[in-house]
UniProtKB/TrEMBL annotation:
InterPro entries listed in its UniProt record: Emp24-like, GOLD_dom, GOLD_dom_sf
Recorded topology in the membrane: Single-pass type I membrane protein
Organism this protein belongs to: Triplophysa rosa
Protein name (database record): Transmembrane emp24 domain-containing protein 5
Transmembrane segments: 187-209
Domain GOLD intervals: 38-119
Length: 221
């Protein structure tokens, strides 16, 4: 019987460990925001959860966009004006949160925008705590289950942070690459323009010199 109780407690611990890793949900999305347009997205949240949103403008003139985060009751929780990137974290209530990217101030240039959502404490904690009912009154060979859960949660948080940093670094790399390609095209355009202007100026100079000599010959004759 004791062996069975130990096995049940160990199995419940494994299940709770897996559920601990699933409490943080990450998602990212890249989209094109046309000139003069505003795009809004919605995210359903639970009470006492955490919503973190990070965005970056990867491509487009001036690399800027307007941003607003709205609560389910319509209140504005965060807003940015013509920024290239931003990070906002809020403690949520039950309901749908809306966040909008506004490019209406630009009449010509479209923007490529990347954003990432990190949702914490979205799982029901009652299920993850059910395993404790099986270990009441058992010794489990003096294992400190609370310490094990703290370690698992710490590892989960660090893995989530590492994934977030990698995603942000990829977004920075994409934005820098787009900026370099844009600068490369501008340099080529101005180089070609200067080359054409130099050829025109050279031709005009040759024509003027020839016309001067032609005038002198006509005056001698």
């Amino acid at each position: 019987m004791d062996v069975f109780r130990v096995f049940v407690a160990f199995l419940s611990l494994c299940v709770s460990a897996i559920s601990a890793f699933s409490q943080s949900l990450d998602s990212d999305f890249t989209f094109t925001l046309p000139a003069g347009r505003k795009e809004c997205f919605y995210q359903s949240m639970k009470k006492d959860a955490s919503l973190e949103i990070e965005y970056q403008v990867l491509d487009g003139a001036s690399l800027d966009v307007d941003f607003q985060l709205h609560a389910p009751n319509g209140h504005i929780l965060a807003s940015d004006y013509r920024k290239s990137d931003g990070v906002h974290t809020v403690e949520t209530e039950e309901g749908d949160y809306m966040f909008c990217f506004d490019n209406t101030f630009s009449a010509v240039s479209e923007k490529i925008i990347f954003f990432e959502l990190i949702l914490d404490n979205m799982d029901d904690r009652e299920d993850s705590e059910d395993w404790k009912a099986y270990v009441q009154g058992t010794d489990l060979l003096d294992m400190k289950l609370e310490d094990i859960m703290d370690t698992i949660n710490s590892v989960k948080a660090r893995l989530g942070k590492s994934l977030q940093i990698q995603t942000v670094l990829r977004a920075f790399e994409a934005r820098d690459r787009n900026l370099q390609e844009s600068n490369y095209e501008r340099v080529n355009l101005w180089s070609c323009t200067n080359l054409v202007l130099m050829m025109i100026v050279s031709g005009v100079q040759v024509y003027l010199l020839r016309s001067l000599f032609d005038d002198k010959r006509k005056t001698r004759t």
